[in-house]
Design a protein that fits this description.
The complex is a heterodimer of chains A (459) and B (629). With 459 residues, chain A is α/β, with parallel strands linked by helices. Chain A has helices at 29-36, 93-105, 115-122, 128-139, 143-153, 156-180, 190-220, 234-242, 285-300, 316-324, 345-351, 368-380, 395-416, 421-439, 445-453, and strands spanning 7-10, 19-25, 37-38, 52-60, 63-73, 84-90, 109-110, 222-228, 260-266, 269-275, 303-309, 330-335, 356-359. A seven-stranded mixed beta sheet of chain A has the order 3-4-5-6-2-1-7. Chain A has a six-stranded mixed beta sheet with strand order 9-10-8-11-12-13, sandwiched between helices. In chain A, strand 4 and strand 5 (63-73) form a beta hairpin. In chain A, helix 4 packs antiparallel against helix 5 (143-153), helix 6 runs antiparallel to helix 14 and helix 7 runs antiparallel to helix 13. In chain B, a hairpin with a 4-residue loop joins strand 9 and strand 10 (152-154). Chain B folds into four domains: 11-209 and 353-463, FAD/NAD(P)-binding domain, CATH 3.50.50.60; 211-350, Beta Barrel (Elongation Factor Tu (Ef-tu), domain 3), CATH 2.40.30; 468-562, Orthogonal Bundle (Arc Repressor Mutant, subunit A); 575-628, GidA associated domain, C-terminal subdomain (DNA polymerase, domain 1), CATH 1.10.150. The longest helix of chain B is centred in the C-terminal third of the chain and has 23 residues, at 468-490. The N and C termini of chain B lie far apart (60 Å). By secondary structure, chain B is an alpha+beta fold. Classes of the chains: A alpha/beta (459), B alpha+beta (629). The A-B interface holds A 1-3, 81, 112, 118, 121-124, 127-128, 176-177, 179-181, 183-184, 410, 417-420, 422-423, 426-427, 429-430, 433, 436, 440-445, 448-449, 452 and B 61, 95-96, 98-99, 284, 295, 298, 301-302, 437-439, 442, 444-445, 524, 555, 558, 561-562, 565, 568, 571-572, 575, 585-590, 605, 609, 616-617, 619-621, 623-625, 627-629.
């Protein structure tokens, strides 16, 4: 049986880091550990207590590969619930790979992606929601995102969903009981009671749903679209953010015709920077498509950086764009402060009162920090609450909530149209099932598959 | 007996032996014989074939569905009640179509007589009055059954339908009779043979109310319950016009605090509460003393006074089954309005009997460990005539298919109430007699009583119980329904004077644009009938075709949502599990889940998910385990 194999993988990233960890899990973990680990005290890993650490050397084919600290965890008190040995060695791609090789030649096999977590799940160490949250933690690119995922791992989302489901189940049971035993259980006036209850549940569900908007910020980053006329310096700005030559920067206006994006991190907040084609009236078909795409991106943006070339006068295009962004969260980047200004900041303020304007020179990287601070501040000012609220960070969860919401609304419309209570339960059952898929209490094969497919190696 | 020499005994050879001629046994034997198997049907009394020892009606909430399904598969119960009914009523007709349920009062003797006639005229079916005492198993398969007198019936398959007769005893007060229902002879020998063959039995209990003399009832103090004006038959083959007839009434009255006082004062004299009765009773068909104890706040309970038939003055007191001593029974009856002077003909009593733990059965109703041995009816832990008959037809079909070496039939929960019933019995370790209820069917909007033929006739025909002629007629009906449905969806009416006038007559918003008849019908204030004057090309159609088309139009959205649920259900249902798998191998399963899974060995992940004690988390563990290893 494959489940009984002892598996091993490098648990840390494969880069030249200060430290690397090789994780070994399974019945034979200790004997595998023993065959590569040598200490002066001749420690036998089979005999030492759980949660103990031991210093020694890793030896393979008569050669000392590295010094290491070996951490021993005994079943079921480990991540996987199995006997586990974690070898912490000095980082280094070559050494780490050699130690894994040593481990593998001692009876372990390479773990499949997600296999440690799969075992943890199969050994009852976590439920599906928790397993899914593990993926989110791994994929989380910022500190905020990680905290939200940890909240899920702790089961706060599960608790909330369970409470909502319990309410729905109570209603279903009551209706069913009344259908079976009309003599003793009456449904007179129950529609009103149910309406009140469902209205409240709907509130809670849409609140969770809305938190996805914010939750998405945490995993994907704040979607920030750089907008401006051709040659305003958008690509230069993008390059500053990306820290490398991402976009093509030329003197020819309209060179950026596709949408380029890059995830960055400012003070622990993730931003998804999106560079766009310059916006202007144009007859060039290809360029026109680029302009349309830019506007579409901007529509979906959480934040718009509107780059204004201060060395050229404002025109009709600027007015249009300023109008377009007036109801959106935006920062106006007053660019090319290294050149003689033609446009004054006041001119822009006049057109777009109350806007945030930051002057920079993208080309010379002057005052770039100011812009970044402004971006971070915008989100730190409490527009996203991370810890006091249950966050949905996963698209699948959001879809399930949306489905549940749809089903509950269908119950309302059944009531309005005068359809009987035996039909309400069809949609209540759907709502119950949709919510169940979030916490693994309604079994959905697709969900199980999707969760375990997303795992990376070593987890 | 001399060693090495056999006593000469009667020996016969049949394909299928059916033990018991109640509602399960009759359907089983008929199905088997009609499928071409020589079939012997054993009964302890030929005079009590298809007897109704309790309530004098067939059908009712969700049970009516079962009868319709039996009929669509080619069974007899629906046809037989159409011959023997004396009142008919469509229950819940004010509610949605999923909970409409047909119920008919039966003339009990006529029902028995009519069924016996059918059995006796079925080719290949032989009735035998004898008590079966033994089943013989060789190499894990049934080879013969033996009677108390020693006769051996060699068979390829056998169906156990012993109902409430196995080691039966009837009780009221401190009176214990070692008999089956109605004082009939109990079957006392078979139990030991079943146990010897490794079959696990349990003991259940049920009960029946007293019967009283019609002449002693004052009906003026009760509410009369009439039958429907337009009688709808159970069987899809019965012509509606041919069965319209004069009906008899039932009567509604109530218990009161005086009744309840008498019961409370004497509760210690009930064998149920004194501990004499050990069998588990049905929660959903409780005795009156159960109701009084369980619902102390209720100041009254409904009682239905129902005729037992046209041939007799006996009346059944529905809702008052009891095992109290006879003096208490008479006193409590006399507290009821209209029954002050009632004369009791037969006492109420409780009956205890042996039945099987049905998780030992497959969905085909065959024992998992004994090839060719099937079980059906109350022996499987169900209650009710209809539940019994439903299992009977499935067990009979499969016993015959087994004898013929052909593929067996399993209906799932999305196909029929029969599927729900059997799946529950073989999965859920019922601790009390199992009664069919609409709430047990997850997909009840699709499993309506009106469309049972649309769901199952095809299957019945494929099995061989539905004749080509009936099948042909069915296909025509099906096509007519589809055509009318499509016509209603695709016929548009505009805002003509005639249309607007009709709409305003019924307080409906006038039309601005063209709209389909279907959409108009879905306005709450309108209906198919109301729209007749503006529906110029409406064809003349049989009423059942119209009913069906109207339901499909009106509930289209709900039906399609339910069908989506069914698709989800099928996904897990189609994930088959190895019946020999040892679940101890999966550590992530909880202890209880492992025990249950190992005990039941479910056929699919879907079935596993319905075992009590197996949680959704356990199911995801199964899914992950079987996917990635």
């Amino acid at each position: 049986m494959k489940e009984k194999d002892t598996i091993a993988a490098i648990a840390t990233g494969l880069t030249n880091a200060g430290i690397s960890v090789i994780r070994v899990s399974g019945e034979q973990a200790f004997s595998v550990g023993n065959s590569v680990f040598y200490s002066e005290k001749n420690i036998n890993l089979e005999k030492v207590p759980g949660y103990s650490a031991h210093y020694g050397k890793i030896v393979y084919e008569g050669e000392v590969l590295d010094e290491a600290v070996v951490l021993v965890m005994r079943a079921p008190h480990s991540y996987t619930g199995e006997n586990t040995v974690e070898i912490s060695c000095h980082g280094g791609v070559l050494v780490t790979k050699r130690i894994l090789e040593a481990v593998l030649s001692s009876g372990a096999r390479v773990a499949e992606p997600g296999e440690f977590t799969k075992r943890a799940f199969l050994n009852g160490r976590m439920d599906l929601a928790e397993a899914e949250a593990v993926i989110d933690i791994i994929e989380a690119k910022t500190e905020f995102a990680r905290k939200a995922s940890v909240g899920q791992l702790g089961g706060r989302l599960s608790e909330k969903i369970r409470a909502i489901r319990r309410e729905i189940l109570d209603s279903i049971s009551y209706i069913e009981a009344a259908l079976d035993d009309p003599e003793h259980i009456s449904l007179d006036g129950y529609d009103q009671e149910l309406t009140e209850k469902l209205t409240q549940l709907l509130n809670e569900i849409s609140k969770l749903e809305r938190s996805f908007q914010e939750g998405r910020v945490l995993t994907e980053g704040v979607k920030t679209v750089i907008l401006g006329k051709p040659n305003a310096g958008k690509s230069s700005l993008m390059n500053l953010f990306a820290g490398e030559e991402k976009a093509i920067v030329t003197e020819i206006a309209g060179t950026t015709r596709d949408v380029l994006s890059e995830q960055i991190n400012i003070s622990g907040i993730g931003f998804m920077m999106v560079d766009t084609a310059g916006i202007r009236e144009t007859c060039d078909v290809v360029e026109k498509i680029g302009v349309e795409r830019s506007l579409k991106q901007a529509e979906e943006a959480d934040l718009i950086l509107y780059v204004v070339d201060s060395s050229r006068p404002l025109d009709e295009n600027d007015r249009k764009i300023l109008n377009f962004i007036s109801d959106k969260k935006s920062i106006i980047v007053y660019n090319k402060t290294d050149l003689t200004p033609v446009v004054k900041k006041e001119d822009i303020e006049e057109l777009s009162p109350g806007s945030r304007i930051i002057g920079i020179s993208a080309k010379e990287a002057v005052d770039f920090e100011k812009l970044k601070d402004c971006m971070a501040e915008l989100f730190e000012r409490g527009e996203i609450i991370v810890n006091d609220q249950i966050m949905i960070t996963n698209l699948r969860h959001k879809e399930a909530l949306a489905d549940a919401e749809k089903s509950i609304r269908a119950v309302f419309s059944s009531m309005e149209q005068g359809f009987g209570e035996d039909l309400w339960t069809i949609d209540l059952t759907d709502a119950y099932a949709s919510l169940g898929t979030i916490i693994g209490e309604a079994v959905d094969d697709d969900v199980v598959n999707r969760i375990f497919e997303k795992f990376c190696m070593g987890k | 007996m001399q060693y090495g020499r056999k006593m000469p005994v009667l020996e016969e050879y049949v394909d299928v032996a059916v033990i018991g001629a109640g509602h399960a046994g009759c359907e089983a034997a008929l199905a088997s014989a009609r499928l071409g198997c020589s079939t012997v049907l054993f009964t302890v009394s030929v005079d009590s074939i298809a007897m109704m020892p309790c309530n004098p009606n067939i059908g009712g909430s969700s049970k009516g569905h079962l009868v319709r399904e039996i009929d669509a598969l080619g069974g007899e119960m629906g046809k037989n009640i159409d011959r023997a009914f004396i009142q008919s009523k469509m229950l819940n007709s004010s509610k949605g179509p999923a909970v409409h349920s047909l119920r008919a009062q039966a003339d009990k003797q006529e029902y028995t007589r009519a069924m016996r006639t059918v059995l006796e005229n079925t080719e290949g079916l032989f009735i035998r009055q004898a008590e079966v005492s033994d089943i013989d198993i060789e190499d894990g398969r049934i080879v013969s059954v033996r009677t108390v007198s020693g006769a051996v019936y060699h068979c390829k398959s056998a169906v156990i339908c012993t109902g409430t007769y196995l080691r039966a005893r009837c009780l009221f007060g401190n009176v214990i009779n070692q008999t089956g229902p109605n004082g009939l002879q109990a079957a006392t020998h078979l139990t030991q043979s079943l146990i010897d063959n490794g079959i696990e039995l349990r003991r259940f209990k049920t009960g029946t109310p007293a019967r009283i003399d019609k002449r002693s009832i004052d009906f003026s103090k009760m509410t009369e319950q009439f039958g429907d004006e337009r009688i709808i038959p159970f069987s899809f083959t019965t012509d509606r016009d041919s069965i319209q007839k004069e009906q008899v009434s039932c009567w509604l009255t109530y218990t009161n605090e005086n009744t309840h006082d008498i019961i409370r004062k004497n509760i210690d004299r009930s064998p149920l509460f004194s501990g004499v009765i050990q069998g588990t009773g049905p929660r959903y068909c409780p005795s009156i003393e159960d109701k009084v104890v369980r619902f102390p706040d209720r100041d009254r309970h409904q009682l239905f006074i129902e005729p037992e038939g046209l041939y007799t003055n006996e009346m059944y007191i529905g809702g008052m089954s009891s095992s109290l001593p006879e003096d208490v029974q008479v006193s409590m009856i006399h507290t009821v309005p209209g029954l002050e002077n009632a004369r009791v003909v037969r006492n109420a009593y409780a009956i205890e009997y042996d039945c099987v733990n049905a998780v030992q059965l497959k969905h085909t109703l065959e024992f998992k460990n004994i090839r060719g041995l099937y079980a059906a009816g109350q022996f499987n832990g169900s209650s009710g005539y209809e539940e019994a008959a439903a299992q009977g037809i499935i067990a009979g079909i499969n016993a015959a298919k087994h004898a013929l070496g052909k593929e067996e039939l399993v209906l799932d929960r999305s196909q029929a109430y029969i599927g729900v019933l059997i799946d529950d019995l073989v999965t859920k370790e019922t601790r009390e007699p199992y009664r069919m209820m609409t709430s047990r069917a997850e997909y009840r909007l699709v499993l309506r009583q009106d469309n049972a033929d649309l769901r199952l006739t095809e299957i019945g025909h494929k099995i061989g119980l539905i004749s080509d002629a009936r099948y042909e007629a069915f296909l025509n009906k099906k096509k007519a329904i589809e055509d009318e449905f499509n016509r209603l969806k695709n016929t548009y009416v505009g805002g003509t004077e005639e249309v607007q006038a009709l709409l305003s007559q019924y307080g409906s918003t006038p039309l601005n644009n063209g709209i389909s008849l279907a959409e108009l019908m879905n306005r709450p204030e309108l209906s198919y009938e109301i729209l007749a004057p503006i529906d110029h090309n409406r064809p003349r159609l049989p009423e059942d075709v119209v009913e069906e088309a109207v339901i499909l139009v009106k509930y289209e959205g709900y039906i399609s949502r339910q069908e989506k649920q069914i698709q989800q259900f099928k996904k897990l249902e189609n994930k088959k599990l190895d019946p020999d798998f040892d679940y101890d191998q999966i550590k992530g399963l909880r202890r209880e889940a492992v025990q249950k899974l190992n005990a039941i060995k479910p056929a699919s992940v879907g079935q596993a998910s319905r075992i009590s004690g197996v949680s959704p988390a356990d199911i995801s563990v199964l899914l992950v385990y079987f996917r990635m290893t």
